[in-house]
Hints:
By secondary structure, the protein is of the alpha/beta class.
Amino acid sequence: MSSAAQPPSSGQTNVITEIRGTVMTIGINRPEARNAVNQETAQLLWQAFKSFEENSSLTVAVLHGLGGNFCAGYDLKELARNPASVKFEQDVTKGPGLMGPSRMRFSKPVIAAVSGYAVAGGLELSLLADLRVVEESAVFGVFCRRF
């Protein structure tokens, strides 16, 4: 069985989910932006992980990026175009984070399948997982140290 989380107003699907047996895969699908997470993608990721957690027939989730990169962090181009669109929560224990699911706690294992870049918020998303499976060429880091 396969399903895709559709964004509300875009022709592109930024997050693709698929269920195979008891495994749910969650793929970030913004390869043109190295899978940087914008507000729409963060919401779709949060919804996908919420669906995983609530489905008792699923035993594990695998988070990955499509197109050669795991995730290049938050979409800074979106932030530059509309800085007021992002609301930073002072209490980091409340609600979805800027990257979507990174504040969630799960009762089932989550695996991050990392290829290419997993930097800044992408590193944050990889740390959400209980286990990271990493290609030899993967790059982890935080390049925005001035912030």
